[in-house]
Every structure is written in structure tokens, then in C-alpha cells.
Amino acid sequence: MTILNTAIIGGGAIHGCHVNALRQIPNVTLRALVDTDSVKGLKLAMNYQCRFYQDYREMLLDDSIDVVHICTPHFEHKNMILAALAAGKNVFCEKPVGMNGSDIIDITRAVEGASGLLGVCYQNRLNPTSLRILHELRNGGLGKMLSIRAVLTWSRSGAYYTDSAWRGRLATEGGSLLINQAIHTLDLMQWFAGGVTRLKGVVDSGELADVTEGEDSAMATLHFTNGARGIFYASNCYTTDSPLLLEIHCEHGSLLLNDNTLWRVTPGERFKLESDAAPDGSAKSYWGLGHQQAIRRFYHAINNPGNTDYTDIREAGKSLTLVEAIYRSSQIRQWIDINN
């Protein structure tokens, strides 16, 4: 098998998940690390025994690099994706793939004309509980889906925003809670139900109003393609990062994800199906445990042309479309139709 040389753009907290995942994939070498902070970047590159670049455009001139991982602030994703694809690289990008629907259109066009692949990191789709939910729904034993409710209550301090100038700014983050944290929950909801046809939502800011231009809380009602209804609530104003609470109500029972454990609940019975706990029994981090699997699937697709078992631009665009629709709905206080 051909060795694939990889570069990571961005040395922030999330890049470590990518490094750890790459170390587990055979015939993959971390060749370069890119960061605008030369002191931090050089230190990381020395630790990883790879090259350092301060400018990602210079790195893209290296013909030996096959895959580029983008772990940078939201507003940089689109231009970096377009440049990397134009340079003939495969690209794996952290969510969101862009800032808005216009970005989705531009990136989709670039992907259609590119030789490389674009994968987007929605690692929570690969949590054991998420995969089991999808299996249970496809199995059909619980009957028709009637509704989904999801509650996400996390904690973000003022320092989280003030220590990173791009966070909480509309021009650089694209919003706040929805586009950064809760987009994963919206993605799971629409994925389980096969898409959204319309929604109405409200966003607001309370505890974090003084440190972010975006929202710290949001709620929405969603109508799904399969006829089910969704209710969604999220906030960064809690005092800890509580595990996602998600319940799918069907004709003959429910699937309940609570405290990282999935239960099938039917009249008179509550049966444990799956858990997201780590093999050593520790609780999962709020990033989930799916980064390794998401990255592994993307590299498998690179090595096996025609394989589509990864989150592509079409799938990644769906949750970003929902985020943008909730923002718009909150502005005009009306239902928004979604074009899937």
C-alpha cells in the first residue's frame, strides 16, 4: 500500500485528536505541521519530528503531501479547502465546513472539479450509541418514528471567548453555540430522521452576552422528512458539560440516550443497548470518541476509489444549513423551509 504523507494546519487543542488518530493508521506519515504562531508551531513540529510551515500556502507547494487536515478557526475553512483542493490534495476538515450556504455552494463546486476528496469531521455519528440508534431505526422494530427531543447543556466561561479572539465573533466564528457546539446535535437529529423540511427557532444570549456577539442559548422545532417532529434545546450557560440527552419516540417504544448510555424503552421493559464509555470505563470527552474512526474511514476512501463511507460536503452541508436557518428564523420570527 502507498504511504500517504499528511499535513495538519492548526496547532490548537483539536489537532491532537488528529495526530493520535493518524498514529493508528498504517502507512500514514505526518510530514508537516502548519501554524501562524511560529514558537508554538516549531515546538510541535519538533515533537512530531516533521516539517514546520508558518504559511499553509507554502506547505501546499510540497508535492509529496497527499492529505491536508484543517484544524483552524471557522472563517479560514473555506479558503483553505479551496486552496488545498486546487493543489491536488485530499482534505479532511473539522466542522463546520464553512460559515454559510454560500460557502457550501462554492466548496461543492470545487469538490466536483477536484482530483482529491473532501471529508468533514462529524465524529459523533460514529459514537457506538449513534450507530446503534441508526441500526435500531432501520430495523423497524419500534415502528414509525413520531418525534425526537434533544437537550444539550454545556458550560463555556467568558475566558473561553476572550482567550481566543476568533470565538464568539460573527465574522470569524459565524455565530456561537449553534455553529460551534450544538451543530453536532442538529446533525444527529436530521441524520436519524432522514432530513428536515422546515423549522422555527430562537437564539438569544444571557450569561455570555458581554463576551460574545453570538448566542449562548437556542431552541427550535423541526419537521423531519419522515413526518416526525423534533424539539431541540441547547445552552452554554450550564456549569458543566452534561452528556447529550436524546430521545426518539416511536409507535411501539422509545430509544433513550442518557448519560452516554442508550436504552430501548418499551411498555414494561427498559433494555440497555449500548454505551459510549471508553474501554477503560472512563466517561467519554465531549468531543466524543469518533475522531479515530472518522479519520480512518476517510483514509480508507482515499485508498479505495469509489468508497463513500465518510461525511462528504453534501452531508456536512445539511447541519450547517439548519444552523443558518435557525439564525434566520430567529431574526424574522417565522418558519423556514429547508431545501434538502
From TrEMBL:
Residues 137-255 form the GFO/IDH/MocA-like oxidoreductase domain. It holds the Pfam family GFO_IDH_MocA_C3. Gene3D superfamilies: Dihydrodipicolinate Reductase, domain 2, NAD(P)-binding Rossmann-like Domain. It comes from the Bacteria. Residues 5-120 form the Gfo/Idh/MocA-like oxidoreductase N-terminal domain. This is Gfo/Idh/MocA family oxidoreductase. It comes from Enterobacter wuhouensis. The lineage of its organism: Bacteria, Pseudomonadati, Pseudomonadota, Gammaproteobacteria, Enterobacterales.
